[in-house]
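Q: I'm writing up a methods section and want to include an example of the input and output format. Could you take the sequence below and give the corresponding predicted structure tokens, formatted cleanly so I can copy it straight into the document?
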Amino acid sequence: MNEALFTANNVWMLVATALVFIMHLGFATLEAGFVQRKNTVNILFKNTMIISIGLLTYCLMGFNLMYPGINEGGFFGFSGFGLSLPEGDAGGIAYADGGYTYWTDFIFQAMFAATAATIVSGAVAERIKLGSFLIFATLFVAISYPITGMWKWGGGWLNAAGFYDFAGSTLVHAVGGWGALAAIILLGARRGKYTSSGIKPIPG
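A: Here is the clean output for your methods example:
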């Protein structure tokens, strides 16, 4: 593996990670525009906490659920809690066929895991309490998203079936969308949106 190309790969992946982080800022401002003025701080805090929760829970168990390194073609695999850096070059220049390091892979994937939960955040704005959403986000990033991600990116059954996922369109955005759909079905409409006289506008 050419060391210059290896370095360039890692730099580009870290730049891409920073761009995904910036996407969270876009989600936050978009959602703030959707809600009433009194709920703006709640929305901004919620989106900030998703990144923190995403990194911690993905580190604790999500990464090893998504990339267990075992059970090829299966539905579920888990290689233990926490991060386990391969020894020697296996975690560095020999990792991922020399494409990038273990740590670059982790931080890039962790940011996408948080993104999936952020998609749900916009759907449930003004429908759920902050504490309840943070519990949901913790479980979503630690368990739900990594398991479905493993089915393709971790060598699971979708990968064995030849499934093609373009840039996370299914594993990140569709999974986040399905989570949002399930949440709004359970939660229902925003309080006061529908009355006996019809639909009531909720001004900002």
